[in-house]
Amino acid sequence: MLKIFHLVFIAASAGMSLGVALWACDAWRRTAEPAWLGLLSVALAGGAALVVYGSRFRQKFRKLGIAGLVLAGSLSAPSDALACPACVGTSDSVLQAGMNMGIITLLGVVFFMWVCFASFFVFLVRRAKRAQAQGSL
Question: CA within 20 to 30 Å of 120's CA: 19, 39, 83, 135, which one?
């Protein structure tokens, strides 16, 4: 399964690299700044390197066979993972309000843990200073 994820990640990265190259090409045509041309060349070189790497990795991956690729394709796009109406943008939904409260609660827990860690380190520093002061007397 990790190999399949690796192939999907390589393909997505190559696609993003192509997108950045197209964006840089469009910006270079509008402004004629050399920085955009540099970004274009770096994005194209990175995309080409990813395609070469992906094809070499796929050759090693062929031992799995076509059944593994079909299984990976069916598992990579389940319809249950698509966004629900609460995520898409209905802000007056009860699901959206519950989800927001869950996010706020989790952020509160994270903040509380940060405060606990910080206070623990402050305690350790004060204890070390007190021990050092008592030891030097």
Answer: 135
Q: State the distance between the two ends of the chain, measured CA to CA, in whole angstroms.
A: 63
Number of domains in the chain: 2
DSSP 1: -
Asked if residue 56 lies in contact with residue 78, where contact means CB atoms within 8 angstroms, the answer is no
Among 30, 60, 78, identify where a domain stops: 78
Number of other residues whose CB lies within 10 A of the CB of residue 119: 10
- The predicted-structure confidence for 5-20, as pLDDT tens digits, reads as follows 777 888 888 888 888 8
Q: What angle do CA 97, 102, 106 make, to 5 degrees?
A: 150
CA 53 – CA 48 distance, rounded (Å): 9
